[in-house]
Amino acid sequence: MDRRTLLECAERLIRREGPGVSLEAIAAEAGVTKPIVYHHVGGKNAVVEGLAWRLNERHAEAARRAVEGVHEPADAIRAFVDAYLEGLEADRSLYLYVTGSGVPGAGPEGVLTFADQSARGLAGRLAEIRGATDAELPAALPWSYALIGMLHFVALWWLRDADRSRAELAAQLTELLWNGLRGPRRPT
């Protein structure tokens, strides 16, 4: 049993049983004991980090595919937001597990792990969308954390209430983001 296989077992269980699964249940799903999980993956935080990394990799690849060949910045934002929401919709329980949002008593560590992994790559893309100068580049990192934070809480609300389609929500969020990211017009 290796780390990858244990994390695959954890994902399968979380998808089937929901975000409140225990480390003991993950070990049972994998057919091993809890000490084996600790040996190959680590404790609960390490499982969360490993699953967050895997989920972020899938989200990043989906976002790359979604914006590939999109030339208009507002369309790129819409494609990115829609890809993000589509990933959450497809992996609802896993997202809630890695962010701690579906686990009673969970702290902010999972949300921050997920945000840290998401924000770094997003910062470069935001700088490109803005056509940032070197002077504006430092703003891209806080903007990416702000975007991830906004998407996180909107996604939690949407996953709970689902009162509109994903496309409708993506269009509404794009309008908000594009108006802010576009910023004031620069003199030419």
Structural descriptors:
188 residues; 77% helix; 0% strand; Arc Repressor Mutant, subunit A
Structure classification: mainly alpha
Shape: elongated
Oligomer designation: single chain
Q: Total number of helical segments?
A: 9
Q: Tell me, what is the CATH class of the largest domain?
A: Mainly Alpha
Assigned CATH architecture of the largest domain? Orthogonal Bundle
Number of strands: 0
Strand content: under 5%
- Flag low-confidence runs: none
The end-to-end span amounts to 61 Å
The main β sheet shows up as: none
Q: Topology as H/E string? A: HHHHHHHHH
CATH topology of the largest domain: Tetracycline Repressor, domain 2
When the domains are counted, the total is 2
Calculate Rg over CA atoms: 18 Å
The average pLDDT is: 82
How much helix, percentage-wise, in residues? over 70%
